[in-house]
Amino acid sequence: MNQFKKINNEVFFTEKTITKIEDDDIKFLKANVKNTEKKRMRLCTHLSEEDKLQEMFILLSKETYIRPHKHLNKPESLHVHEGSADVIFFDDESNIIKIISLTDSSSKSCFYYRIDEPTYHTFIVKSDYFIFHETTQGPFKRTDTIYAPWSPKEKNFVEIGNFISQLKKSVKVFLTK
Q: Is 4-175 CATH 2.60.120.10?
């Protein structure tokens, strides 16, 4: 981890112009995610929020809540490194329009997706850890992320529990159609 600078407990940026990710870096994420408020961590392999290309290794735990959101004016791609999760895509009214079950490439399942249009999405992590490489366009601007108005805010734990429970039921129904 000596090539990364800590921004906060969840975010680390590279300090090198040539960055590598090793098993020890992934072990660091796994060992420390439990100490983060949102139960997620990222290693940014770009030098700053201003970079035009942004690449990150992100770890989500089973306890992570990713508020449904969409990104304006920027594509996003995700390549699974380890674990499994469902990514759920919604229309603007909160209806599920697509589910992609993701897992590492050691199985015959999907391990990559790309979004070109702003589409609300979230994750349900199915393994203890879900680790992926995400690529998107920079610079990073908070105003480019729009949170679904029908989804609970990240600090509203009671509503989050209800939302996730209902979402899991909706996913089962959607998958049986």
A: yes
